[in-house]
Design goal:
110 residues; mainly alpha; 2 helices
């Protein structure tokens, strides 16, 4: 939403003065002020109501956040290196291909 600068407020005031006249302008200003005040009160009461309804959920969330996170048991250490046990590495050379099925025709490997 764009903000109103002093020049814009002055232009609005002059236009309102020309449209409504100097006698009605104070009355209109009071009515606008009351309307803004009523809107703020409504907004505050709505915010209090929503905070009251949502406040219970936030309290439960805070109690869960206060609990420590579950942890995993410590890893076992390898006796030789002292490092955590890791999965076995792949062998240096790939395994030989599986033998062909009995019903497959022989292939020439020359």
């Amino acid at each position: 939403m764009p903000q109103l600068g002093p020049l814009e407020i002055l232009v609005i005031f002059v236009v309102a003065l020309l449209v409504f006249g100097p006698s009605k302008l104070p009355e209109i200003g009071r009515q606008v002020g009351r309307g803004v005040n009523e809107f703020r009160r409504f907004q505050q009461s709505l915010r209090r109501d929503l905070d009251g309804m949502l406040g219970d959920d936030e309290a439960e969330d805070q109690t869960e956040a206060a609990r420590p996170a579950p942890t995993l048991p410590p890893r076992e250490l390898s006796a030789e290196t002292g490092d955590p046990m890791l999965p076995l590495p792949w062998p240096d050379s790939p395994p030989p291909p599986p033998p062909p099925p009995d019903d497959a025709p022989p292939t020439d490997r020359t």
